[in-house]
Amino acid sequence: NAGVTQTPKFQVLKTGQSMTLQCAQDMNHEYMSWYRQDPGMGLRLIHYSVGAGITDQGEVPNGYNVSRSTTEDFPLRLLSAAPSQTSVYFCASSYRAAGNTIYFGEGSWLTVV
Amino acid sequence: EDKVVQSPLSLVVHEGDTVTLNCSYEVTNFRSLLWYKQEKKAPTFLFMLTSSGIEKKSGRLSSILDKKELFSILNITATQTGDSAVYLCAVLDSNYQLIWGAGTKLIIKP
Q: Does A88 touch chain B (CB under 8 A)?
Protein backbone atom coordinates (compact mmCIF):
# COMPACT_ATOMS: atom_id res chain seq x y z
CA ASN A 1 0.00 0.00 0.00
CA ALA A 2 1.84 3.08 -1.26
CA GLY A 3 -0.42 5.68 0.38
CA VAL A 4 0.09 9.15 -1.15
CA THR A 5 2.86 9.41 -3.72
CA GLN A 6 4.19 12.79 -4.81
CA THR A 7 6.69 13.50 -7.54
CA PRO A 8 9.15 15.06 -8.02
CA LYS A 9 10.73 15.45 -4.58
CA PHE A 10 12.97 18.30 -5.68
CA GLN A 11 12.74 20.66 -8.64
CA VAL A 12 14.44 23.86 -9.73
CA LEU A 13 12.57 25.98 -12.26
CA LYS A 14 13.35 29.17 -14.09
CA THR A 15 10.90 32.05 -13.83
CA GLY A 16 8.19 31.65 -16.46
CA GLN A 17 8.55 27.89 -16.87
CA SER A 18 5.59 25.61 -16.29
CA MET A 19 5.55 22.27 -14.55
CA THR A 20 3.25 19.72 -12.99
CA LEU A 21 3.55 18.20 -9.55
CA GLN A 22 2.06 14.73 -9.58
CA CYS A 23 0.03 13.24 -6.74
CA ALA A 24 -1.50 9.78 -6.61
CA GLN A 25 -3.22 7.85 -3.84
CA ASP A 26 -4.27 4.22 -3.76
CA MET A 27 -6.67 4.34 -0.81
CA ASN A 28 -9.80 5.28 -2.78
CA HIS A 29 -10.04 8.54 -0.85
CA GLU A 30 -12.61 10.96 -2.19
CA TYR A 31 -10.94 14.07 -0.77
CA MET A 32 -7.58 15.31 -2.06
CA SER A 33 -5.84 18.61 -1.55
CA TRP A 34 -2.65 20.54 -2.22
CA TYR A 35 -0.91 22.70 0.38
CA ARG A 36 2.13 24.89 0.31
CA GLN A 37 4.24 25.40 3.39
CA ASP A 38 6.43 28.45 3.84
CA PRO A 39 8.57 29.28 6.88
CA GLY A 40 6.50 30.72 9.72
CA MET A 41 3.21 30.38 7.84
CA GLY A 42 2.02 26.85 8.44
CA LEU A 43 0.20 24.98 5.69
CA ARG A 44 -1.93 26.95 3.26
CA LEU A 45 -4.53 25.28 1.08
CA ILE A 46 -4.06 25.84 -2.65
CA HIS A 47 -6.78 23.71 -4.25
CA TYR A 48 -8.86 20.77 -3.19
CA SER A 49 -11.18 18.17 -4.64
CA VAL A 50 -14.07 16.31 -3.04
CA GLY A 51 -14.25 13.71 -5.81
CA ALA A 52 -13.45 12.94 -9.43
CA GLY A 53 -14.47 15.79 -11.69
CA ILE A 54 -14.85 18.28 -8.83
CA THR A 55 -12.24 20.83 -7.80
CA ASP A 56 -12.33 24.06 -5.84
CA GLN A 57 -10.02 26.84 -4.79
CA GLY A 58 -8.42 27.08 -1.40
CA GLU A 59 -6.77 29.99 0.33
CA VAL A 60 -3.95 30.66 -2.19
CA PRO A 61 -5.02 29.39 -5.65
CA ASN A 62 -3.48 32.06 -7.90
CA GLY A 63 -0.86 30.75 -10.29
CA TYR A 64 -1.95 27.12 -9.91
CA ASN A 65 -4.36 24.81 -11.73
CA VAL A 66 -5.63 21.39 -10.79
CA SER A 67 -7.75 18.68 -12.32
CA ARG A 68 -9.26 15.47 -10.96
CA SER A 69 -10.05 13.16 -13.85
CA THR A 70 -9.75 10.04 -11.69
CA THR A 71 -10.18 9.28 -7.99
CA GLU A 72 -6.50 8.36 -7.73
CA ASP A 73 -4.74 11.34 -9.31
CA PHE A 74 -4.67 15.04 -8.47
CA PRO A 75 -1.92 16.90 -10.35
CA LEU A 76 -0.99 20.49 -9.53
CA ARG A 77 0.13 22.68 -12.42
CA LEU A 78 2.24 25.80 -12.15
CA LEU A 79 1.35 27.81 -15.21
CA SER A 80 4.21 30.33 -15.26
CA ALA A 81 6.51 29.86 -12.29
CA ALA A 82 7.44 32.86 -10.16
CA PRO A 83 10.01 33.15 -7.35
CA SER A 84 7.09 33.63 -4.91
CA GLN A 85 6.13 30.04 -5.63
CA THR A 86 9.34 28.75 -4.10
CA SER A 87 7.99 26.55 -1.35
CA VAL A 88 7.41 23.04 -0.11
CA TYR A 89 4.28 21.48 -1.53
CA PHE A 90 2.29 18.72 0.12
CA CYS A 91 -0.45 16.65 -1.39
CA ALA A 92 -2.94 15.10 1.03
CA SER A 93 -5.89 12.75 0.86
CA SER A 94 -8.55 11.60 3.28
CA TYR A 95 -12.03 10.33 3.74
CA ARG A 96 -13.84 13.63 3.74
CA ALA A 97 -15.33 13.45 7.17
CA ALA A 98 -12.24 12.40 9.08
CA GLY A 99 -9.52 14.98 9.65
CA ASN A 100 -7.67 12.51 11.81
CA THR A 101 -7.01 10.23 8.85
CA ILE A 102 -5.53 12.75 6.48
CA TYR A 103 -2.56 11.23 4.69
CA PHE A 104 0.22 13.41 3.39
CA GLY A 105 2.67 12.82 0.62
CA GLU A 106 6.34 13.28 1.43
CA GLY A 107 6.52 16.77 -0.01
CA SER A 108 7.99 18.42 -3.09
CA TRP A 109 10.67 21.05 -2.63
CA LEU A 110 10.35 23.59 -5.43
CA THR A 111 12.77 26.44 -6.09
CA VAL A 112 12.03 29.07 -8.72
CA VAL A 113 15.03 31.16 -9.78
CA GLU B 1 -11.54 35.60 8.99
CA ASP B 2 -10.88 32.21 10.55
CA LYS B 3 -7.48 31.84 12.15
CA VAL B 4 -5.41 29.53 14.31
CA VAL B 5 -2.57 30.98 16.38
CA GLN B 6 0.13 28.93 18.02
CA SER B 7 2.54 30.00 20.72
CA PRO B 8 5.37 30.11 21.30
CA LEU B 9 6.75 30.12 17.75
CA SER B 10 9.86 28.37 18.99
CA LEU B 11 11.04 26.80 22.20
CA VAL B 12 14.37 25.38 23.35
CA VAL B 13 14.44 23.14 26.44
CA HIS B 14 16.68 20.47 27.93
CA GLU B 15 16.02 16.77 27.81
CA GLY B 16 13.76 15.74 30.68
CA ASP B 17 11.91 19.04 30.85
CA THR B 18 8.14 19.31 30.45
CA VAL B 19 6.77 21.61 27.77
CA THR B 20 3.35 23.07 27.05
CA LEU B 21 2.44 24.23 23.56
CA ASN B 22 -0.54 26.48 22.99
CA CYS B 23 -3.09 26.76 20.21
CA SER B 24 -5.87 29.33 20.16
CA TYR B 25 -8.45 29.62 17.43
CA GLU B 26 -11.16 31.79 15.99
CA VAL B 27 -13.09 29.58 13.61
CA THR B 28 -16.73 30.26 12.80
CA ASN B 29 -17.91 26.68 12.37
CA PHE B 30 -15.65 24.55 14.54
CA ARG B 31 -15.77 20.80 14.16
CA SER B 32 -12.58 19.53 15.78
CA LEU B 33 -8.98 20.47 16.59
CA LEU B 34 -6.02 18.39 15.54
CA TRP B 35 -2.38 18.24 16.55
CA TYR B 36 0.38 17.03 14.22
CA LYS B 37 4.10 16.51 14.58
CA GLN B 38 6.32 17.45 11.66
CA GLU B 39 9.93 16.41 11.48
CA LYS B 40 11.74 16.73 8.20
CA LYS B 41 8.92 15.61 5.98
CA ALA B 42 5.13 15.43 6.10
CA PRO B 43 3.08 16.05 9.27
CA THR B 44 2.07 13.00 11.24
CA PHE B 45 -1.16 12.87 13.21
CA LEU B 46 -1.07 13.05 17.02
CA PHE B 47 -4.53 13.86 18.40
CA MET B 48 -8.00 14.92 17.39
CA LEU B 49 -10.07 16.79 20.00
CA THR B 50 -13.76 17.39 19.68
CA SER B 51 -15.09 17.77 23.22
CA SER B 52 -14.03 20.20 25.94
CA GLY B 53 -12.22 18.98 29.01
CA ILE B 54 -11.47 15.44 27.86
CA GLU B 55 -7.77 14.75 27.87
CA LYS B 56 -6.28 12.68 25.09
CA LYS B 57 -3.11 10.87 26.04
CA SER B 58 -0.46 8.93 24.17
CA GLY B 59 2.63 8.01 26.13
CA ARG B 60 4.34 11.22 27.25
CA LEU B 61 2.08 13.41 25.11
CA SER B 62 -1.31 14.69 26.16
CA SER B 63 -3.72 17.30 24.92
CA ILE B 64 -6.91 18.98 26.03
CA LEU B 65 -9.42 21.34 24.44
CA ASP B 66 -11.31 24.27 25.96
CA LYS B 67 -14.17 25.21 23.63
CA LYS B 68 -15.33 28.04 25.86
CA GLU B 69 -11.98 29.85 25.83
CA LEU B 70 -11.17 28.60 22.30
CA PHE B 71 -7.79 27.03 22.89
CA SER B 72 -5.97 23.76 23.24
CA ILE B 73 -2.69 22.76 24.83
CA LEU B 74 -0.27 19.99 23.99
CA ASN B 75 1.89 18.76 26.86
CA ILE B 76 5.04 16.71 26.52
CA THR B 77 6.57 15.35 29.72
CA ALA B 78 10.09 14.01 30.21
CA THR B 79 11.12 15.33 26.80
CA GLN B 80 13.62 13.45 24.66
CA THR B 81 15.75 14.61 21.73
CA GLY B 82 13.41 12.67 19.44
CA ASP B 83 10.63 15.07 20.38
CA SER B 84 12.42 17.85 18.50
CA ALA B 85 10.04 18.83 15.69
CA VAL B 86 7.55 21.41 14.56
CA TYR B 87 4.18 20.86 16.24
CA LEU B 88 1.23 21.97 14.15
CA CYS B 89 -2.28 22.69 15.31
CA ALA B 90 -5.18 22.71 12.86
CA VAL B 91 -8.92 23.26 13.17
CA LEU B 92 -11.36 21.32 11.03
CA ASP B 93 -14.40 23.39 10.14
CA SER B 94 -17.90 22.30 9.20
CA ASN B 95 -16.89 22.21 5.51
CA TYR B 96 -14.13 19.74 6.41
CA GLN B 97 -11.46 22.30 5.62
CA LEU B 98 -8.37 22.39 7.82
CA ILE B 99 -7.17 25.79 9.03
CA TRP B 100 -3.57 25.54 10.11
CA GLY B 101 -1.51 27.39 12.67
CA ALA B 102 2.07 28.40 11.85
CA GLY B 103 3.51 25.79 14.19
CA THR B 104 5.78 25.72 17.23
CA LYS B 105 9.36 24.68 16.59
CA LEU B 106 10.53 22.63 19.57
CA ILE B 107 14.22 21.92 20.11
CA ILE B 108 15.27 19.52 22.83
CA LYS B 109 18.91 19.84 23.91
CA PRO B 110 20.64 16.76 25.31
A: no
How far apart CA B63 and CA A55 sit, in angstroms, is 34
> Count of CB contacts below 8 A, A vs B?
47
- CA angle, corner B33, sides to A84 and B102, nearest 5? 25
Q: Please, is A84 exposed, middle or buried when counting C-beta atoms within 10 Å of its C-beta (0-12, 13-18, 19+)?
A: exposed
Of A35, A97, A107, the CB nearest to B96: A97
A 10 A CB-CB count for A16 gives: 10
Q: Do A104 and B42 touch (CB under 8 A)?
A: yes
C-alpha–C-alpha distance, residues B36 and B71, integer Å: 16
Mean pLDDT over A29-33 rounds to 92
> What is the pLDDT at residue A95?
82
Mutate to test the interface with B, among A23, A88, A96, A102 (most CBs of B within 10 A): A102
**B45-67 pLDDT tens trace:** 899 999 999 999 999 999 999 99
DSSP classification of residue B54 = P
**pLDDT for residue B21:** 98
**Closest residue by Cα to residue B37 from B65, B14, B58:** B58
